[in-house]
From TrEMBL:
This is LysR family transcriptional regulator. Signal peptide: none annotated. SUPFAM superfamilies: Periplasmic binding protein-like II, Winged helix' DNA-binding domain. The chain crosses the membrane at residues 266-288. Belongs to the LysR transcriptional regulatory family. It comes from Kitasatospora terrestris. Gene3D superfamilies: Periplasmic binding protein-like II (3.40.190.10), Winged helix-like DNA-binding domain superfamily/Winged helix DNA-binding domain (1.10.10.10). Keywords: DNA-binding, Membrane, Transcription, Transcription regulation, Transmembrane, Transmembrane helix. Residues 2-59 form the HTH lysR-type domain. The lineage of its organism: Bacteria, Bacillati, Actinomycetota, Actinomycetes, Kitasatosporales.
Length: 295
């Protein structure tokens, strides 16, 4: 009989590529991961891994087993959702991931709404960039999360992860000392989010679409800080609507652009019907400003 816990390790190896990365993602030691995968190979009776030096690749049988593992784990999530429905009332922890501007502008109101409906449900929020959500969900560090995508940076489907349709859609703005478009700032210094984030990729692609590569002066993830830097002449930036709510300093002009950021909820495949996940989604929808729902 194949052990589900070991199957999870194989699935994570398929996503992360190295035993060290799997160990870091799941808070195991590399030797423990390697030992458990060796046990899984003995259980399977066929080679699942090919080792070349420090690199490990999955064999065709390993890839096939990962495909079946995704289906098994999805069925287990559905079973957990059905059991949760059978209990009386929602209680216990609900681990929520959210990106910073949503955490500031929407999540507090959503948590208040959630608490009023389900007072025994213990919401626990962690800030996480959308690029890290899939790994955190698969590792069980999160139960549900807010993720976003930009017109110029669509997100790829992650195995084992499901997402809803857009919960809300925000317009994007160019923040600069005076009104204008992106193309007018080919010679301006730019303020961007850190490398590896969707916000960073979005700004790069927007500038490239306007015919130039931006000259990056500052790399800052917090939009309040970005606007403060724009206000004192340190550069220009692209900012979504939530990044401007209640924090537009004097000296900053916001020019609306024909670009949008769309936010969805993400969770493990099979968990869509889990009452706690559905309760958070309902609470979030209740507090989203009407003008963002149909943008």
């Amino acid at each position: 009989m194949l052990d589900v816990r070991r199957l999870r390790l194989l699935r994570e190896l398929a996503h992360h590529g190295t035993i060290a990365a799997v160990a870091e993602a799941l808070a195991f030691s590399p030797s423990a991961v390697s030992q458990q995968l060796s046990v899984l190979e003995r259980e399977a009776g066929v080679p699942l891994l090919e080792r070349t030096g420090r690199r490990v690749a999955l064999t065709p049988a390993g890839h096939n087993l990962v495909r079946h593992t995704e289906a098994v784990l999805e069925r287990l999530e559905r079973a957990g959702a059905e059991l949760a429905h059978a209990r009386q009332g929602l209680a216990g922890p609900l681990r929520i991931g959210a990106y910073p501007s949503a955490t500031r502008a929407l999540v507090p109101a959503a948590l208040a709404e959630l608490a009023s409906r389900h007072p025994a449900l213990e919401a626990m929020v962690s800030e996480v960039d959308p690029a890290g959500v899939a790994a955190a969900l698969r590792a069980g560090e999160l139960d549900v999360a807010l993720v976003h995508e930009y017109d110029l940076v669509p997100t790829e489907t992650e195995p084992g992860i499901a997402v809803t349709g857009p919960v809300f859609t925000e317009p994007m703005y160019l923040a600069a000392p005076a009104a204008g478009g992106v193309a007018e700032h080919r010679d301006s210094p730019w303020i961007m989010a850190g490398p590896g984030t969707l916000c960073h990729a979005m700004t790069l692609r927007a500038c490239q679409a306007a015919g130039f590569s931006p000259r990056i002066r500052h790399q800052v993830d917090d939009f309040a800080t970005v606007l403060a830097l724009v206000a004192v002449g340190q550069g220009v930036a692209l900012v979504p609507h939530l990044g401007t709510v209640g924090q537009r300093p004097s000296g900053v002009a916001l020019t609306r652009l024909p670009m949008y950021r769309r936010t969805r909820t993400a969770f493990r495949a099979g968990a869509a019907a889990h009452p706690a996940v559905a309760a958070f989604a309902a609470a979030l929808h209740a507090v989203v400003p009407r003008e963002l729902r149909g943008a």
